[in-house]
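Collaborator request, handled under Task 6.
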Amino acid sequence: DVDGNKVELSYNLDASTQIVKDARGYSTAYTYDERGNILSETNGTKIS
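Structure tokens returned to the collaborator:
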């Protein structure tokens, strides 16, 4: 991020789901359709 903290990105092989994990351990998951449009966004989950 802008403060130099680590941000992690992960996704599945067909790129239908992407997870962004911030420096505090909280994640936002995005799911996409076959055209790359966002179908859903789920946030606030802490991953340890």
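The cover message to the collaborator said: "The CA atoms of residues 8 and 21 lie 5 Å apart. The longest strand covers residues 38-46. Please let us know whether this matches your experimental observations."
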